[in-house]
Amino acid sequence: MRGKVFLSMSGKRYSLVMAPAAHRRFRKFPLPLQEKIKIEAEKLTDNPYRGEELKGPLKGIHSHRFSFRRTEFRFLLYDLCSIGT
Questions:
Q1: Of 10, 26, 16, 84, whose CA–CA distance to 47 is shortest?
Q2: What's the gap between Cα 10 and its chain centre?
């Protein structure tokens, strides 16, 4: 997948790649929201299956929700590939 590697931390089993359009939008967010997104993304590098698997035509896509200042956000993880396997 083409995109910006958002998190690729040593000792982690997974890395998170952000689509270019998502990264352009991310850079425009206020800094506190950017930090919250980084914290949630780090949780996903530990275990990308922590969110729910969607159903129906979206089967195979995982969703991780989090809130920031009473607004709900969602990560959609659609290409779960383990690093080094």
A1: 16
A2: 17
DSSP string, 57-80: GGTT-EEEEEEETTEEEEEEE---
Contacts 24+ apart (CB under 8 A), 42-50: 42/7, 42/9, 44/14, 44/16, 44/75, 44/77, 45/7, 45/9, 45/12, 45/13, 45/14, 45/15, 45/16, 46/12, 46/13, 46/14, 48/14, 48/77, 48/80, 49/80
Q: Domain 4-77, CATH 3.30.2310 — does that match? A: yes
pLDDT tops 80 at residue 3: no
Is 12 a residue whose pLDDT tops 70? Answer: no
